């Protein structure tokens, strides 16, 4: 399958290379250190890397340290040799200033490890938001046989008999705190209830999304993305993943055979049906570029917008990760989509079968959690791609627009899809936190809140800050959300209907850099435009003045990597990758 390879295993070039006995001796001598015999190391056993993302710094993925034992057993059982090694830690919630910086850094590090060490295949231990794309991006560049293993979500969180979902509960608890309904202690206890076990966020945030999409892309064994971390089935999935990667090496089944354009289209369709995160377009664009597949942002709308929301998980719905798994998870969702002809059934997956063969006929086990296609939670649940005079591209997750929001903004019978209002502009998250409750800003229910300086360059890595809560005085009056627009990202666990990922960002002198508080802005959800209602000449003049003043100001870099990444990172509509890295492709074959 795929392009040809040299005879034998890639690792033979290190350990059994008659043309270079000097180097072979050097390599063999030190790798014996962890208990292999000389014969074993020089045998025809494939060497399988376990790219370990779990650590104390990365608690969402920490359970992979336990699962690695079962992966090793599977690898050994199938006749391979396991070599586990660490991946640069990425923890979505713990990393300052943003975990967005770590995705590309972990990518770089893993590419070096996979390319430069004696590996024939690799297990990618995925989980917390950016770990999944970082590892898939590296596997795409290197193109070594690779299989992803999700660490799985946490068990459901509960508080006073109600499900509390990770991340999502934070947005809710902040509103309760701002409204004076709970105190600081109550705030912490409510939030802590949502994290009852090991695993990643149990809501349909970026972690659940990206793992579901890794499975939809074909890079994970069917039915394994959503098994909760503590479940017995999760251990079994680790074992089977270990077994399978050895055979993938023998079959030479590589990421380029699996992550095709068809596979990306399947992932987009699945993302709509699960109510997936607004971070998914960034990460899929990045993976696609590294594997050399053309994927335009607009395809999220053309391929994905008309797909209904089937999965009833927070933040768009009510259930959590355990319920999703028990209801049938990705295969049950894909099966519904197959019946409608929405899935490219011929796309290959890691188990050597097509996605069609894996998922056709899989039944939903609980229709409260996964709805049949005929009775969705919402029609047209995919993203809408926006453009206009403030940016070239941005997206909105329409599945989280609440009925109250619709009633407030989209009730003009003459203009049912559009609304306009005065802008209040914040320059980065610190500015927002300082000023949001300042009454002199004059924020009313008609205000449109803008966040800028939060993109990959402005706030290195791009901050998840576009979803902004209104000032406390409005929350007390029952206004819990205002329209938010910005060049940052938004947590996948947020239910806010924001227009985000605006590219180019203000720091790259996109149109948002020219916006001023008080400008009127019009949003049209039907044609997908956001425009500031001032003449082009005025915008051009503002651009001239700002450019002469040195451009849009943003904070200085605090670390060497921030500076390096800022100098080469692209914009979010094209994946925010390290520009130039995409020309290195299929390097395991070189
Ligand atoms: Fe790691 Fe949500 S913070 S998965
Ligand atoms: Mg996130």
TrEMBL record:
Gene3D superfamilies attached to this UniProt entry: IlvD/EDD C-terminal domain-like
SUPFAM superfamilies assigned: IlvD/EDD N-terminal domain-like, LeuD/IlvD-like
Pfam families listed in its UniProt record: ILV_EDD_C, ILVD_EDD_N
Root EC class: lyase
Domain (Dihydroxy-acid/6-phosphogluconate dehydratase C-terminal) ranges: 369-576
Highest rank taxon of the organism: Bacteria
EC number: 4.2.1.-
Dihydroxy-acid/6-phosphogluconate dehydratase N-terminal domain: residues covered: 45-358
Keywords associated with the record: Iron, Iron-sulfur, Lyase, Metal-binding
Record GO terms (molecular function): lyase activity
Similarity comment: Belongs to the IlvD/Edd family.
Name the record gives this protein: IlvD/Edd family dehydratase
Organism field: Sphingomonas natans
């Amino acid at each position: 399958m795929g392009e040809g390879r040299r005879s034998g295993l890639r690792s033979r070039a290190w350990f059994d290379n008659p043309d270079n006995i000097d180097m072979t001796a050097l390599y063999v001598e030190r790798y014996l250190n962890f208990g292999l015999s000389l014969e074993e190391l020089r045998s025809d056993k494939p060497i399988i890397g376990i790219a370990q993302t779990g650590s104390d710094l990365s608690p969402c993925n920490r359970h992979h340290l336990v699962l690695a034992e079962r992966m090793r057993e599977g690898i050994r059982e199938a006749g391979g040799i396991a070599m586990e090694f660490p991946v640069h830690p990425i923890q979505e919630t713990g990393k300052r200033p943003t975990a967005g910086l770590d995705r590309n850094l972990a990518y770089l590090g893993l590419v070096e490890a996979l390319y430069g060490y004696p590996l024939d295949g690799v297990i990618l231990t995925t989980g917390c938001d950016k770990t999944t794309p970082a590892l898939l991006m590296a596997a795409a560049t290197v193109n070594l046989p690779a299989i992803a293993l999700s660490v799985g979500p946490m068990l459901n969180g509960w508080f006073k008999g109600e499900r509390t979902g990770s991340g999502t509960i934070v947005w809710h608890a902040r509103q309760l705190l701002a409204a004076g309904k709970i105190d600081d202690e109550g705030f912490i206890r409510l939030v802590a209830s949502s994290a009852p076990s090991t695993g990643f966020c149990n809501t349909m945030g970026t972690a659940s999304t990206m793992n579901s999409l890794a499975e939809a892309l074909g890079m994970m064994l069917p039915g394994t993305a959503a098994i909760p971390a503590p479940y017995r089935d999760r251990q079994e999935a680790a074992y089977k993943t270990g077994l399978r990667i050895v055979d993938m090496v023998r079959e030479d089944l590589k990421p380029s055979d699996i992550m095709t354009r068809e596979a990306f289209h399947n992932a987009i369709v699945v993302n709509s049906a699960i109510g997936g995160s607004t971070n998914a377009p960034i990460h899929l664009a990045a993976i696609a570029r590294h594997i050399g597949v053309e994927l335009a942002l607009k395809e999220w709308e053309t391929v994905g917008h008309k797909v209904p929301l089937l999965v009833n998980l927070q933040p768009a719905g009510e259930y959590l990760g355990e319920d999703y798994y028990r209801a049938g998870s990705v295969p049950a969702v894909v099966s519904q989509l197959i019946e409608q002809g929405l899935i490219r059934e011929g796309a290959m997956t890691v188990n050597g079968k097509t996605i069609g063969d894996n998922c056709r006929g899989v039944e939903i086990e609980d229709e409260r959690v996964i709805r049949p296609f005929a009775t969705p939670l919402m029609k047209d649940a995919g993203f809408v791609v926006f453009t206009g005079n403030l940016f070239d591209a941005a997206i909105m997750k329409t599945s989280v627009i609440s009925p109250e929001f619709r009633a407030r903004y989209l009730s003009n019978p003459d203009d049912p899809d559009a609304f306009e209002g005065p802008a209040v502009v914040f320059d980065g998250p610190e500015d927002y936190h300082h000023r949001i409750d300042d009454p002199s800003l004059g924020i009313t229910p008609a205000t449109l809140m803008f966040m800028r300086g939060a993109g990959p360059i402005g706030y290195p890595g791009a901050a998840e800050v576009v979803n902004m809560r209104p000032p406390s005085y409005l929350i007390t009056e029952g206004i819990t959300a205002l329209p938010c627009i910005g060049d940052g990202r938004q947590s996948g666990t947020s239910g806010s209907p924001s227009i985000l990922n605006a590219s180019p960002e203000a720091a790259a002198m996109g149109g948002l850099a020219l916006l001023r508080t008080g400008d009127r802005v019009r949003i049209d959800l039907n044609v997908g435009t956001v425009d500031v209602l001032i003449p082009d000449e005025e915008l051009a003049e503002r651009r001239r003045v700002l450019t002469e003043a040195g451009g849009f100001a943003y904070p200085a870099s605090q670390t060497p990597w921030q500076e390096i990444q800022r100098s080469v990172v692209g914009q979010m509509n094209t994946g925010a990758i390290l520009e130039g890295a995409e020309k290195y492709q299929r390097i395991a074959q070189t």
